[in-house]
Every structure is written in C-alpha cells, then in structure tokens.
Amino acid sequence: MLQFHKLFNKLIHMQYTIETIGSVCSPYKQKFGIARQPGLVPAAEICISLDKRFQADCVRGLETFDYIWVHFIFHGVLGEGWAPLVRPPRLGGKQKKGVFATRSPHRPNHLGLSLLKLERITTDSGIKLWCSGADLLDETPVIDIKPYIPFVEAKPNAAAGFIDGAPPQLDILWHEASGRQHLTEAFASLISQSIAQDPRPAYQNIPERVYVMNVGDCEVKFQIDENRALILSVLPMPV
C-alpha cells in the first residue's frame, strides 16, 4: 500500500508537455473587442491552419459535423499570471468568483475551450478548418480539436450558476462620416456584432470616451452611451 501511494504521488506531480497542432488566423488583432463567449458574433470567421505534419487523414469524417470543440492557449495573457478569485463581467465586475467557476483567461494553465461552427475544410494548401462565431485572438495556438456530439454534450436544462442566458446587446448606430458605405456587408456585420457585445470593462461607463478596436486591418473608433454604441470611424490601421 505504501508503495502504491508513492507511485500515485509521483504520477500526480509529473510534468506533461503539450505540443500545438496549429494556429488561428482571426480578424481580432487585439484582446479588446473579442466576444467573451463563442457564438455571440456569428460574423467572426477564423481559419485554423494545422501544422504540416498533419495530413488529410487526420480530419477524415470531421466534415460531417456541424460544430467542433477547439482547445487552445490564451497566449495573449501568458505573462499576466492568474488569481484564485476573479471578477466576471457578467456580474458587473463587482463580485468575485473562484477562477474555476468562471471562464476567465487568467487561469493556472491558460487553457481555453470554444465551441465553433465548422463551415468547411480545405486541403489544397495544407489542412485548414474554417469556422464562424469565433472568440479567438489572431495567432492563437491550438492544442486539440474534437467533434461536438449533441446528444452527449447538450444539456439545455442544466443549472448555469450566475450566468442567466445570453448577455444584453447594445444598439448600434453608424455615424454618417464613419465610412460605412465603403465596407463590405460581412465586415460591417463583424464590427457591429462585436461592438454590440459591449467590449468595455464592466466597471467602465464614460459616455464621452472614444474606444479604439483593431479588427482585420482597420482601426475602429466608437463611443457608448447607456445601451447605444455609435461607430465614429473605420480607417486602415496606421503603419
């Protein structure tokens, strides 16, 4: 029995190495403005490029699934550490919850999990998975991909703790000088849907403040007053 406990203790303290399997190309070039959960911004499309060591056989049959689980690393906050208590935005940033009761990126191992809509798979220039409804930063390292199985993983009647349904959305207005007429419908939708999620810190409410968000190759400026967001301009990012 003593020998068993020694072996068990050795195993639980063992260090493991996880290798990335690919990376993400995303329109979100900075953390600010990314949807806080997957699926909230349907127009947010990404491409997951698998490493060259993975061939078409690795994704054979995956095209028959509508959604995939994407396991990834919150690489944008690796240097920021973690804390046992965090302030979830859904609680206005005023209440603390245990880190394991939240989906905060500031976690002991900085691992993330997103359920994304699988739009298509291409194999002509490496294995690429095209997904929508994404909440991932550009260049996010991906460590695993699994198919979503509804009858196993969908629990619509499960208790959701302090999270009561989808978050409220802001009304979106475009300033007449914003340059909206020069944008494609898809890109304008991406901007509108992203800002509608209210990307501000939960504690911040400064109507006169101009916020700046980098989306694609553009710099987006906007203001938020009450439940309305006004998009002021969409311009190419300065070199």
Automatic annotation (TrEMBL):
It comes from the Bacteria. Keywords: S-adenosyl-L-methionine. Residues 18-157 form the TsaA-like domain. InterPro entries: TrmO-like_N (IPR023370), TrmO_C (IPR041369), UPF0066_cons_site (IPR023368), YaeB-like (IPR040372), YaeB-like_sf (IPR036413), YaeB_N_sf (IPR036414). SUPFAM superfamilies: YaeB-like. Belongs to the tRNA methyltransferase O family. PANTHER family: TRNA (ADENINE(37)-N6)-METHYLTRANSFERASE. This is TsaA-like domain-containing protein. It comes from Neisseria wadsworthii 9715.
